[in-house]
Amino acid sequence: MVTHRNTKLESESSRFPQVSLMKIIEAYKDLPASTRDAVVAIGNFDGVHKGHRALLKEAAAIAKKTGKKLAVLTFEPHPKRLFRPDEPPGRLTPSAVKAWRLQEERVDILYALKFDWDFASRSAEDFIQKILKDGLGVSHVIVGDNFRFGQLRKGEAKDIKAAGIPVTSIGDVSDDGGQVYSSSLIRRALRQGDIAAANEMLGWEWEAWGEIVKGDQRGCELGFPTANFALGATIHPAYGVYAARVNIDGENEWHAAAVNIGIRPMFEIPEAEVESYIFDFSREIYGKILRVRPVQRLRSEAKFNSVDELKVQMKADCEQVKKILKC
Hints:
The protein has helices at 50-66, 79-83, 95-104, 117-120, 124-135, 157-162, 183-191, 195-202, 218-222, 307-325, and strands at residues 3-4, 23-25, 39-42, 70-76, 109-114, 140-144, 167-170, 208-211, 227-230, 240-248, 254-262, 273-278, 289-299. The protein is of the alpha/beta class. The strands form 2 sheets. Strands 1-2-5-4-3-6-7 form a 7-stranded parallel β-sheet. The chain has a 6-stranded antiparallel β-sheet with strand order 8-13-10-11-12-9. Helix 7 (183-191) packs antiparallel against helix 8 (195-202).
């Protein structure tokens, strides 16, 4: 990963080494010429869903035509985290996952600028002059029709154009039924446990990432050792048991797994976790990054009358997962 930094992304980003082909820039001042003069798509891009990719496709076409690099300008953390800190975690793609998805879309440069109260208080004019013109030296800007920026969201695409920067605006993208692709609808699907609906809108298989930590060893005691990580800023899908596939970062193989997402009512853990029982797997992988792709939700979390009753249910869950995943 190539960086030019004077700020930091959300803390998890440095732990996920998936991004190596795209430059990540966390500053806008004193940039080398090689990271300026790009065609820049601006937005939060949470989810990098089908609507976002239509915008990126347009930006890529302009970049190819003009011989420029393709870049994305986004903000970390997500502005909602600053403006509405008491809301439940809602990121479809925390910073590292978003960077990975943008790299998959062949973005050359990711400008991930720190979003804090100082940044939020910038006027639209200041954003255009100091960041887009003086800092990034953008050659062309691509935004969605509803894009607003600057203090109190007063800035519009026409203001960027009036400042002498070429601008292309893209309207909403919808499915065959006329439903607009949106991050909020994808969040709703995940919170309802409808993985298939979320994936259809995303255009890729949603996944959560985390560093595997040593837990309370309850799984081992029950005969189902699990690889655990906290969800953190990642959206919490409907709590329950899922059939899933998991991957240990840096390895090629995806393993079948029975995954519990939630707080384990039997033991009442304080923070929601992703707990993966990986079939036919015995290696110690603490400290590794685990990628978990839920495939289908089996049931909600439940509090059982005894540990023995829980073990019976876990065995039944595993058999159901194997049937779903055909393993």
